[in-house]
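Project standup — Tuesday

K.O.: blocked on the structure for the chain from last sprint. Re-posting the sequence here as requested.
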Amino acid sequence: MDQQRFENLDDKAKANAVLLYESGVERFDHHPMDGLQDLWKSFNNWLSCVTAIERDANQIQDFVGDKEIQQLFEELWKNDNTFRERLLAFSAEWPIYKSSSILKHYGAQYPWQFSTRAELLVAIAGDPRLIKSPRDWVPGSNPTLSQTIWAIYQVRGNLIHGRKNAHVEDDVRLVQMAFNVLIKLIDDIGYADPLAESP
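H.V.: unblocked you, prediction finished:
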């Protein structure tokens, strides 16, 4: 991964990542799910440039393995109380199950019999058939960079495949948590500067 690849682009080439960031910030308050979609698109645009890799999964692996990014994450965790609080709140909701995996093994109506997401998680906990992120999550442990990005990626994946409902409070809250963690990371990386302040 080489962040200089993005920094060396002219303003027109950078515009897509920057404009998507701005759009995500602007849409977040009224439409959190749209806000996360645009913010991830911005991040993905930057990521594809600095990694020079095509597939999302491979881009993420390159990103989370980067020593400079790992140090940035560790410093945020240690020194930024807002980031730490946001990430602790988000990780309290982990693991994030792949929605299509639940529907495949339990049926489309199964999740709707539970009044909260927490009840659903208790019911499906430990089912080895289900795909989840982070795969290696231990409740109560400190989240790693890799676990954090994969969790955000799974929230976003469930979202684009229509498995998050803007009228379900738990779904909206999870999306908001993912957005608030991702934007702090992006702001510290700094590829979208100077732009509107993050929420």
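K.O.: great, moving the ticket to review. Residues 88 and 145 are 13 Å apart (CA to CA). DSSP finds ten helices and two strands in the chain.
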